[in-house]
């Protein structure tokens, strides 16, 4: 299996775990030190550049933020996630844009259909990830998500992207 195929299979699996609500397995796709960031669009139609000083749609400086989010979803302590939407994730245009001995930098496009309360929403954008290759399975070290349709009618969450 080529490096490209290995990374594509990993990204497809991560997306499927979200669709199947296999939260613990999904969390294992992320390094404990992962930075998970979805910047917001500024009035100048540019993405914010600093999650510490500017508004972000989602920002977790490490996996603990993702773990807390998953805990709330699993225990129904997230009113915005109850009932959980049914999602279908699509990934395309996976491109390896950098590589070191122990990690790759990847850019890909994504779209997610989300259905809840008899309404279907579509979210789409792209991601840039740094993925570690040293363990038994790849792990995401950083993930920056670009949401292209940011005028949405409700809260966006980790399962939408």
From TrEMBL:
The keyword Protein transport does not apply. Keywords: Aromatic hydrocarbons catabolism, Dioxygenase, Oxidoreductase. One of its GO terms (molecular function) is benzoate 1,2-dioxygenase activity. CDD domains: ring_hydroxylating_dioxygenases_beta. It comes from the Bacteria. Its EC number is 1.14.12.10. Signal peptide: none annotated. InterPro entries: Benzo_1-2-diOase_ssu, NTF2-like_dom_sf, Rng_hydr_dOase-bsu. The keyword Oxidoreductase applies. It is an enzyme of class 1 (oxidoreductase). Belongs to the bacterial ring-hydroxylating dioxygenase beta subunit family. NCBIfam families: benzo_1_2_benB. This is Benzoate 1,2-dioxygenase small subunit. It comes from Serratia rhizosphaerae.
